[in-house]
Design goal:
Blueprint: E1 2-4, H1 6-10, E2 15-22, E3 27-29, E4 32-36, E5 40-48, E6 52-66, E7 73-87, E8 97-98, E9 103-105, H2 107-117, H3 146-154, H4 158-169
Parallel strand pairs: 7-8
Antiparallel strand pairs: 1-9, 2-5, 3-4, 4-6, 5-6, 6-7
The chain binds zinc ion (ZN) (2 copies).
Length: 170
């Protein structure tokens, strides 16, 4: 995601545009593996102000996600926007990316923004029922009989109550 910006540097204020479709290898971020099911589509506009560039745009990609409820792998469309500044020699406290003498490389910036915008909680569908907490079956596919049984297992007096109740009845 590198491109020449010599022409725009000669005409501050005039916007240039950049588009790319990049196949990205698996990324790792905070111990998480991020896999892509499609190339990353990036569109950006960039303007030179005499000192640096402001780069603004958006990106779209399909993530290989895992459902937080049922654990199933599924493809999740994901998009995010970015706006960052590039200067030649950013200081340690500048929130700017470095640029070459006549070149911008926006790959690191795009990935930083991708990581920051990643969905925290992916679900395969809004009404995914998830897994049974007792037997682990996929409740989207089967309806197990655990729900009632779980209450009795949690309450040690359940059996006693049943006995007492039956005694009264008799
Ligand atoms: Zn699910
Ligand atoms: Zn169950």
């Amino acid at each position: 995601m590198k491109f020449n910006v010599a022409a725009e540097m000669k005409q501050p204020g005039r916007a240039g545009s950049y588009e790319a479709l990049e196949t990205c290898p698996t990324q790792s971020y905070l111990g998480r593996q991020i896999e892509f099911a499609s190339p990353l589509a990036v569109r950006a506009a960039y303007v030179y102000d005499g000192e640096g560039f402001t780069v603004k745009g958006e990106a779209q990609v399909t993530l290989c996600s895992e459902c937080a409820r049922c654990g199933k792998s599924f493809e999740e469309p994901f998009g995010f926007a970015f706006e960052e500044r590039f200067v030649k020699n950013p200081g340690p406290d500048d929130e700017c990316y470095p640029m070459g003498s006549e070149e911008l490389d926006i790959a690191k910036m795009v990935f930083d923004n991708l990581f920051l915008n990643l969905p925290l909680h992916s679900v395969c569908s809004e009404d995914c029922k998830g897994l049974c907490p007792v037997c682990g079956c996929d409740l989207n596919l089967v309806q197990c009989a655990c729900v009632g049984a779980e209450d009795k297992a949690i309450n040690p007096f359940a059996k006693l109550e049943t006995l007492l109740y039956h005694d009264k009845e008799v």
